[in-house]
Design a protein that fits this description.
This is tRNA(Ile)-lysidine synthase. Belongs to the tRNA(Ile)-lysidine synthase family. GO terms for molecular function: tRNA(Ile)-lysidine synthase activity. It is found in: Cytoplasm. The structure is a single chain. The protein is α+β, with helices and mostly antiparallel strands. It has 3 domains: 219 residues, Rossmann fold (3-Layer(aba) Sandwich), CATH 3.40.50.620; 78 residues, Chorismate Mutase Domain, subunit A; 101 residues, no CATH class. 39% of the residues lie in helices and 21% in strands. A 6-stranded mixed β-sheet has the order 3-2-1-4-6-5, with helices on both faces. β8 and β9 form a beta hairpin. α5 crosses α8. The radius of gyration is 29 Å and the shape is elongated. The N and C termini lie far apart (71 Å). Adenosine-5'-triphosphate binds next to α2 and β2.
Length: 433
């Protein structure tokens, strides 16, 4: 005999609980809607039975009049179930992108800020949510990553996000909530078909189900398979990347020549590189432009930028760089002892003077390079810093980030905090602390 939906849902939570190391707290993301109210109710049963610690977290976005009613409902439910609840107020910046996306971003940031590292957060998304996400992403032209929709388990900024009910239909959750008499709050915006997701839920999926009653389950299954294929592909590409990366964390252009590797593979490799560095991947057009340039002239001065990052070529290697502002003015005083945090980077080695001229100049002045500096190098005489940088292995775009160090009116040293490259005048020495 088939199990009632609530028994099936509870069993999935028992299984998910078994994956969590003993002693770690289980958190439930409680919006106050049907799904997460049911999740908390069944999680409380499982945790009570197994002696595990359970807590709930509600994020108040303050976006709609009903926000306080949601919070009040969460408080009442947690009180009834004797589950400690944290309510976090966030402010949603909807100036960029839609309000839904901004609320989501603020919510996840609140989860990460509030939940201790390595704890697990359960979210109540189900099969129909998964089918909707799959369709929304397909309609945006997503590749395998997007079509994988929501993974069942994801490690995100130190915490584990788990969706134990992705295999269960909305109908099963509704039946279980009614059978258990779980109270919940209805979100009035869920009916508003001006939102893409609501339009899919209320207009498109019912139409699909008329012809294909299993549409929700099948679309969610496609998402599962796409997600699995994507994870597998990522693992292969990471290994590929590891084999190619130089000690400077660059890719040799020779290995990227299209005769060596076909374009789809190169595109995937470059995207995985961005993912590894925690940077946004280039949009398709930018990526194609980069590959065209690489294809045309191997050693060309290629530069392709997109929001948050850029790739550049120099001396036969491809560099992936985070978008950073160059701060080219200001100065700080320094005793010469590391570490020194500056607006331009942290100096991790100390600058000492061998001949104790420092008695006359107790403080050094640290300032970004302006151009025209000359350093009196030991054994080489006076040299333009510009020439020294040209001779160095420092890529041209990094030279603007070089700092100069002054004792009075004399430039006694220069350094590039990000790479650790340093130059010193005669009588001065950098010492690694
Ligand atoms: N304000 C919130 N505070 C805490 N968790 C939330 C909040 N909003 C959403 N979540 C979590 O994210 C999941 C998915 O969010 P989504 O917006 O799809 O759900 P919902 O319709 O608001 O609520 P429910 O899933 O409880 O019916 C929820 O099931 C819940 O676990």
């Amino acid at each position: 005999m088939a199990l009632p939906p609530e028994a099936c849902l509870e069993r999935l939570l028992t299984d998910a609980l078994a994956e969590i190391p003993p002693g770690r707290v289980v958190w439930v993301a409680l919006s106050g809607g049907l799904d997460s109210s049911l999740l908390l109710t069944l999680a409380q049963r499982c945790c009570l039975a197994s002696g595990r610690k359970l807590r709930a977290l509600h994020v108040n976005h303050g976006l709609q009049g009903a926000a306080s009613a949601f919070e009040a409902h969460c408080r009442a439910l947690c009180e009834r179930l004797v589950v400690p609840l944290s309510c976090i107020e966030v402010s949603v910046d909807a100036t960029q992108g839609g309000v839904e996306a901004a609320a989501r971003q603020a919510r996840y940031a609140a989860f990460v800020a509030h939940i201790p590292a390595q704890d697990t957060l359960w979210l109540a998304q189900h099969q129909d949510d998964q089918a909707e996400t799959f369709l929304l992403n397909a309609l945006r032209g997503s590749g395998p990553r997007g079509l994988g929709a929501m993974p069942r388990v994801r490690h995100h900024a130190g915490i584990w996000l788990v969706r134990p009910w992705l295999s269960q239909s909305r109908q099963a959750l509704e039946e279980a909530a009614r059978a258990l008499k779980v109270p919940w709050c209805d979100d009035p915006t869920n009916a508003d078909i001006a939102f893409d997701r609501n339009r899919l839920r209320h207009r498109v999926l019912p139409l699909l189900r008329e012809r294909w009653p299993q549409a929700g389950a099948q679309l969610a299954e496609s998402a599962r398979q796409a997600g699995e294929a994507d994870a597998l592909l990522s693992a292969y590409l990471m290994a590929d990347l590891d084999a190619l990366l130089t000690p400077r964390n660059t890719l040799p252009l020779a290995a990227l020549a299209l005769s060596e590797r076909e374009r789809p593979r190169l595109r995937a490799l470059l995207r995985v590189w961005c993912q590894r560095q925690g940077l946004p991947a280039p949009p398709r057009r930018r990526l194609e432009s980069l590959l065209d340039q690489l294809d045309a002239r191997l050693d060309a001065q290629v530069q392709v930028a997109w929001e948050g990052a850029e790739m550049r070529c120099w001396r036969g290697e491809l560099y992936l760089l985070q978008e950073r502002e160059v701060v080219s003015d200001g100065q700080v005083e320094w005793s010469g002892r590391a570490p020194l945090a500056t607006p331009w980077g942290t100096l991790t080695s100390s600058l000492v003077n061998d001949e104790a001229v420092r008695a006359e100049a107790p403080f050094l002045r640290v300032t970004p390079r302006q151009g025209g500096e000359v350093i009196d190098l030991a054994g080489r005489g006076r040299r333009d810093l510009k020439r020294l940088l040209q001779e160095s292995a420092l890529p041209p775009w990094e030279r603007a980030r070089v700092l100069t160090l002054w004792a009075g009116a004399t430039c006694v040293a220069a350094c590039h905090p990000q790479s650790g490259a340093t130059w010193c005048a005669s009588g001065w020495r950098w010492v690694v602390s």
